[in-house]
Amino acid sequence: MEFRKLGRSGFKVPALCLGTATFGGGRGFTEWGNVGVPEATRLVDLCLEAGVTMFDSADMYSAGAAEEILGGAVKGRREQVIISTKATFRLGDGPNDVGSSRHHLIKACEGSLRRLGTDYIDLYQLHGFDAMTPVEEALQALDDLVRAGKVRYIGCSNFSGWHLMKSLAVSEKYGLARYVAHQAYYSLIGREYEWELMPLALDQGVGAVVWSPLGMGRLGGKVRRSQPLPKVSRLNDPDTVKIAPPAEEEFVYRVVDALDDVAKETGKSVAQVAINWVLRRPSVATVIVGARDEAQLKQNLAAAGWALTPAQVAKLDAASAKERIYPYWHQAQFPERNPFPTS
User: Fold this and answer.
1) End-to-end alpha-carbon separation of the chain, Å?
2) How far apart are CA 205 and CA 200, in angstroms?
3) CB of 328 within 8 A of CB of 321?
4) For residues 82 and 116, what is the distance between their CA atoms, to the nearest angstrom?
5) Is 79 part of any domain?
6) Residue 123, C-beta contacts closer than 8 angstroms, at least 6 positions apart
7) Does a structural domain hold residue 78?
8) Cα-flanking dihedrals φ and ψ of residue 20, to 5°?
9) Which neighbouring-strand residues pair with 287?
């Protein structure tokens, strides 16, 4: 397994990371998966055999159950793995059980440490931007967690460009711990990350931790024209559909057609081609893949260790291209001053 530096840090992470949103089940997550400790332990075994040592979770996945199950699955081999988890979203009914306030972040981190059965978290991320909390307060709380040895690196997730840039500026101004990772959505049917966040990441040294490289399952190979959705799919859950990245059906089908062509050329599956495309993009440090069972995990792990040809990348790029919104369409008209990132 290839290892890459995480942003502007000396820390290396594997190119693939196992996401744990399928661990636990329960309200809002049953359609994602219902993996328990025995099954999770087997998935961790397979990952470690393949060199995938990183596991990503969040306190709100299955109301904390995902972290508990991950903790049970890595018990006795903590030093062999990299654990990343997230906080900010609501976990509880109280007025302070949500957000990135000092009160909530410290409480949330303590809860994650307890559920994971560890005394430190390798990468701790804000799950989303909290406009109700001063950026300085959130970063100071994260810096305190780093200085206390409870967190080793910090990151954010789902930030706008100005959210991330302001946070980096505040860290520099006050000498606080700096975001080295941005967990962001990026896929062949969701390339908006390229417009501003990718150039920012390369300029500022922030590694992309990519979530949903298959566009919430749409690029898994089972969503096709004139066919019903598979019986087992997150897209069958109305709550999941509400939060799924938007994508027009015809656009998805167009991308899947191109993926089919490349899959035949490479002898790989549609999902493997889609993940591999993301793996080779600038600024990407690691790509999070999920798994309901061993078979799906083995399929996803096989997305690494090989490369698409330039012609195949061009075919996928052309099929997935969309008209940009302002000011990005204007900037793209002047490639000599605003070239597409290449490294």
Assistant:
1) 20
2) 8
3) no
4) 12
5) yes
6) 6, 82, 83, 84, 85, 152, 153, 154, 155, 180, 181, 209
7) yes
8) -115, 20
9) 16, 210
pLDDT in tens, the chain (343 residues): 999 999 999 999 999 999 999 999 766 666 667 789 999 999 999 999 999 999 999 999 999 999 999 999 999 999 999 999 999 999 999 999 999 999 999 999 999 999 999 999 999 999 999 999 999 999 999 999 999 999 999 999 999 999 999 999 999 999 999 999 999 999 999 999 999 999 999 999 999 999 999 999 999 998 888 777 776 666 666 777 777 788 899 999 999 999 999 999 999 999 999 999 999 999 999 999 999 899 999 999 999 999 999 999 999 999 999 999 999 999 999 999 999 988 7
Residues annotated as part of the active site: 61
Residue entry with tokens 């393949």: 50
Number of independent structural domains in the chain: 1
Cβ(202)–Cβ(283) below 8 Å: yes
How far is the CA of 216 from the CAs of 37, 189, 240, 301, 336, in angstroms? Answer: 24, 10, 9, 17, 35
Domain that holds residue 306: 3-332
Can you tell me the distance from the alpha carbon of 335 to that of 339, in angstroms, rounded to the nearest whole number?
Answer: 5
Any idea what the CATH number is for the domain that residue 181 is in?
Answer: 3.20.20.100
And the tokens for 161? 């460009």
| Residue pair 131/168 in contact by the 8 Å Cβ criterion | no
Instruction: Tell me if 278 is assigned to some domain.
Output: yes
Q: What is the pTM of this model?
A: 0.94
Residue 189's contacts (CB-CB under 8 Å, 6 or more residues apart) are 215, 218, 219, 245, 247, 251, 252, 255, 320
Residue 339, in any domain of the structure: no
Cβ atoms < 10 Å from Cβ of 44: 24
